[in-house]
Design goal:
It is built from 23 helices and 42 strands. It is of the alpha+beta class. The strands form ten sheets. Strands 12-13-15-23-19-18-17-21 form an eight-stranded mixed beta sheet, with no helix packed on it. It is flat and about 100 Å long.
Length: 955
């Protein structure tokens, strides 16, 4: 088709709002107030009145009645067929759907259509994968819905149709003042037009909406606060075109909204479309070109409109964004996009993979060696000459801490280690296509070969024979000198050696294993499918963090690393108190494992030494120590001790707290998340009392008598039990209300509660499993903050930095109570390895001054979170102290309704951005922040900035 677009100079109609209001009443009989809605080239006014909300559409004078009828028929066609909201035309008083008005010698055609409630997706800054997918699905449904739609006016050539990119850009490029932008558009259009022309005969055609974009897709907030597409408006661009253009138009919006990766965002739209309207091979091949085409058309189109109407705020607003999208589109290699889109649709990308012919070993005198592990699981890898660095591996040396973007870690080549200066020969004959400082590209038949890590000895343009010397090994990058050999589909514009994991599968299809080139077999990569394997064997009652859990393979300090070498800032692992993989802990454990590990019925020093150290950290008379393995065991033993010492059974516990998974501790854990029936039907002898929750409970932190008042609930429960002649054995409580994200107990609470318990002859247990060991900063033990001394203290988690060692510390009198009752023995509790680790952890805490660090960094983090509360409505309050903090996310600050789904989605988004945070609390709406105590000020700053960004841009 030959088309000319130069004459399309479109002035938007300019009626006043008052005129619009009158037109709605006089022509359509609809009363209401009028307000302006945006439009590219028409004028739209929202009419809001007693009979509902409508849009008065005043068409650009360039449009004829047949074109408007096309739009109306398409709307009705879809409205009747799709599970989507679509505007419907309303009849005018004259019986027709189209009315006319004369103005300044021109005739303008009017329509009134129903208003689709919601917000256009353009209003959302960040578009989550689920939203992009749903947008793709909307486009797919529209394409399917219009499959059988016909109209005589649909044959018009529309400038926004990606198919016409060549003609449109040729006509409109002269309007682009900036020469860089102009040539960018011309270049993109040229490449796209050529590909489209080549593929067009194989592509299906039909009528399309051709404008299913973020401006025209309407969404409504789901429970997680995401704007989920539910309708589509603006049928002004309906035209007959290629079916896949419906998708190309929609997919091009992925390049806006500042996505983490533009191609991955587009692929998500493609995936959604394909699910609703399956694509064929030719369409998938054409798609990357059509997406680029649309981006170029929109950029030159808005430029024209903006130049024509400098006062059209709508056109001016979109102009900068449209050029950014065009630049992003130009930067995406079409081949890569093609492979990625195919993978998104569940097709194989193998069609994009070049064949790798057999070649010759390039390093004479060095024999190929074994593969060495250069991934995060490789501990001190040795790289002798000939050692191979694997293809497809996530490289440990390429990881980057505190990175919101995925770092480029996946290796696309094969490395062969060799001494500096060693000769490198061409593995096969070819032409030297490009020569760089430390690399060259050899173009062979159907394959490009990138050789890097060498000083090239061949010249660009030179033909070389197989076995010819092409360079010498040189030092490069962070690994020992090596030759990087990369096979690639021919003609790729640039060949990175490492790519980000999100793009890895597509890149690996384009850069297959180069083994045959070097005379080596390409190893079959084992199918990992770890998640499926876990699900088949680990009960579902034991859930995982995250929808698509990363496979964590390494930890160091306050960072965790996944198998692809992505680094995450770990904000939740209070267990790893001195940091992951602390070398002193490792050394202590390794040394003792080599010497002895046995049970505690033998005499060895470390058990006594560790018990002495713990007792020395506690006030008198807490000087007897039982060593066990976990917090649950510690609390279980504490309950047994209390019952034995008092010869009573009843236990008072805090409603909604958590103390462990053993039968006895589970009974006193009434958190609705962990034990949904616990508080509703407490076990015999268990008496949950009102939790001292100054945020959601009856007495707030501003009530100076809150502590005493909450403690009254303990007193009342004791009175009730005493009246029934069953006074309590014990009262168990954390020194910070941990389950609610670390709400600090009101002043005087434990003092008053302990006094009531002691007066009744009961024993007070402080569960310090989470909050003890210096985490609170100002105090080593949580109970110190309340000015009390418990009768029994339990400690775990931090005690072994992840190794299972826990303790119960109590008085001699209470400890002796077990003597006549079978005594106590735990096979591995307090074993030599555990105790050596326990001692090392205490040494590190002290020497690295981690309690002080918790106070300093925690204070800073608390202040920063407080600022976030000031900035974001959803952030209701900050709880906690030191490095035990919680950010309470609420739907409404007055009702404090937990923002449960939002919190979940925010955690997912934070993980995308490289931070591990998790929800806690009965409403699962508190972001718990309890990192290793080696957390630094810069980590806190980075976390705050990341969180602020997520809350501001959306999730
Ligand atoms: N007490 C408290 C306060 C806890 O938070 C936990 C665990 N989250 C436990 C006891 C149980 O400890 P463990 O998981 O080591 O058995």
């Amino acid at each position: 088709m030959s088309v000319s677009f130069a004459g399309h100079q479109l002035h938007s109609p300019r009626f006043s709002l008052d005129e619009a209001r009158v037109l709605a009443r006089e022509r359509f009989g609809v009363e209401g107030t009028a307000s302006q809605l945006g439009s590219h080239q028409d004028q739209n006014a929202l009419i809001d009145g007693p009979s509902g909300r409508f849009v008065l559409k005043i068409a650009n004078a360039a449009f004829g009645e047949d074109e408007l009828d096309l739009q109306n028929r398409a709307m009705l066609h879809l409205a009747e067929r799709l599970p989507l909201e679509v505007p419907r035309p309303c009849p005018a008083l004259n019986g027709s759907e189209i009315a006319a008005v004369e103005r300044d010698g021109a005739t303008y055609l009017l329509r009134l259509v129903t208003f689709v409630e919601g917000e256009p997706l353009i209003d959302a800054l960040h578009l989550a994968p689920a939203v992009l997918n749903a947008l793709g699905e909307v486009a797919g449904l529209v394409a399917r819905g219009l499959e059988d739609f016909e109209h005589p006016a649909a044959g018009r050539a529309l400038q926004w149709d990606p198919r016409h990119v060549g003609a449109v850009v040729e006509a409109l490029a002269p309007h682009v003042e900036d020469p860089h932008r102009r040539s960018l558009a011309v270049e993109v259009a040229g490449a796209a037009a050529e590909a489209i022309e080549r593929l067009a005969p194989r592509l299906r055609t039909q009528i399309a909406h051709c404008d299913v974009t973020d401006w025209n897709v309407i969404g409504r907030r789901d429970r997680a606060g995401r704007l989920m597409p539910c309708g589509v408006i603006d049928f002004g661009d309906v035209t007959r075109t290629l079916r896949v253009c419906e998708l190309a138009v929609a997919a091009s919006i992925a390049y806006g909204h500042d996505p983490d990766d533009p191609l991955c965002a587009a692929a998500e739209i493609v995936r959604g479309f394909d699910a609703a309207c399956p694509l064929d091979d030719a369409e998938l091949e054409a798609l990357p070109h059509l997406v680029a085409a649309r981006a170029a058309i929109v950029a030159v189109g808005t430029e024209q409109q903006a130049a024509l109407e400098p006062h059209n705020a709508y056109a001016q607003r979109v102009r900068a964004g449209d050029w950014a999208i065009c630049e992003t589109a130009a930067a995406q290699p079409a081949r890569l996009a093609g492979a990625l889109f195919r993978l998104a649709c569940g097709r194989s990308a193998a069609g994009h993979a070049p064949r790798v012919p057999a070649g010759a070993w390039p390093l004479p005198g060095i024999a190929p060696g074994a593969e060495v592990d250069l991934s995060p699981t490789g501990l001190d890898p040795l790289t002798p000459p000939g050692a191979l660095g694997a293809h497809g591996e996530g490289r440990w040396h390429a990881t980057r801490e505190l990175s919101r973007e995925e770092p480029e870690t996946i290796h696309l080549g094969l490395d062969v280690f060799a001494p500096e200066g060693h000769e490198v020969r061409a593995p096969l004959a070819g032409r030297v296509e490009r020569v760089g400082e430390r690399e060259l590209l050899l173009a062979a038949e159907g394959l490009d070969v990138r050789l890097a890590g060498l000083v090239p000895a061949a010249m660009g343009g030179e033909d070389v024979a197989a076995g010819a010397v092409v360079g010498h090994i040189t030092a490069a990058g962070s690994l020992a000198p090596h030759l990087h050999v990369q096979a690639a589909a021919p003609g790729m514009p640039a060949l990175p050696g490492l790519v980000k994991p999100a793009l890895a599968e597509a890149w690996l299809a384009l850069c297959p294993h180069p083994g045959p080139l070097l005379g080596l077999a390409a190893p079959a990569r084992p199918e990992r499918a770890l998640l499926a394997r876990r699900r088949a064997v680990i009960p579902h009652a034991q859930p995982l963090y995250y929808e698509a859990p990363p496979e964590i393979v390494r930890g160091a300090g306050q960072h965790l690393y996944d198998a692809q070498a992505r680094a995450y800032l770990d904000c939740v692992n209070n267990v790893a108190v001195v940091g992951h993989s602390h070398p002193r802990v490792t050394a202590a454990a390794t040394r003792q494992l080599r010497l002895l590990n046995t049970n505690s019925r033998f005499l060895y020093e470390s058990m006594t030494a560790f018990a002495e150290r713990l007792a020395g950290l506690l006030p008198d008379p807490l000087d007897r120590v039982f060593l066990v393995s976990t917090g649950s065991e510690a609390n279980d033993l504490a309950l047994r001790l209390a019952r034995a010492a008092t010869r009573r059974r009843n236990v008072l516990c805090i409603r909604d707290a958590y103390h462990g998974w053993t039968t006895a501790t589970y009974e006193v854990s009434t958190s609705s998340v962990d034990n949904p029936l616990g508080a509703l039907a407490p076990a015999e002898g268990v008496h949950p009392v009102l939790s001292p929750d100054t945020y959601r409970g009856p007495y707030g932190a501003d009530d100076p008598r809150a502590g005493e008042r909450y403690a009254d609930a303990v007193r009342d429960a004791i009175h009730e039990l005493a009246a029934a002649d069953h006074p309590p054995a014990a009262f168990i409580c954390e020194a910070l209300y941990g389950n609610a994200g670390g709400i600090v107990l009101p002043d005087g609470y434990l003092q008053a509660a302990y006094a009531h318990v002691h007066a009744a002859g009961g024993v007070c247990i402080a569960d310090e499993v989470q909050v003890g060991y210096g985490r609170l900063g100002a105090h080593f033990w949580g109970f110190e903050q309340q000015g009390v001394v418990p009768d029994i203290v339990t400690v775990a988690k931090a005690t072994g930095n992840g190794h299972p060692i826990a303790a119960v510390i109590t008085t001699g009198t209470i400890a002796e109570a077990l003597e006549g009752q079978g005594g106590f023995f735990a096979s591995v509790g307090g074993g030599p390895v555990s105790c050596e680790i326990g001692l090392a952890v205490l040494d590190i805490l002290q020497e690295e001054r981690l309690q002080e660090n918790a106070q300093r960094v925690g204070g800073m983090l608390h202040a920063g979170l407080q600022e976030i509360v000031g900035r974001h409505e959803i952030a209701g309050a900050v709880h906690g102290m030191g490095l035990y903090l919680g950010l309470d996310l609420v739907r409404d600050r007055t009702t404090k309704q937990p923002a449960r789904e939002e919190t979940d989605a925010i955690c997912e988004r934070m993980r995308d951005r490289g931070a591990i945070v998790q929800p806690t609390g009965d409403g699962m709406n508190v972001l718990k922040l309890k990192p290793p105590l080696v957390f630094q000020q810069r980590d806190a700053d980075w976390l705050l900035e990341t969180l602020d960004g997520v809350l501001a841009r959306g999730w």
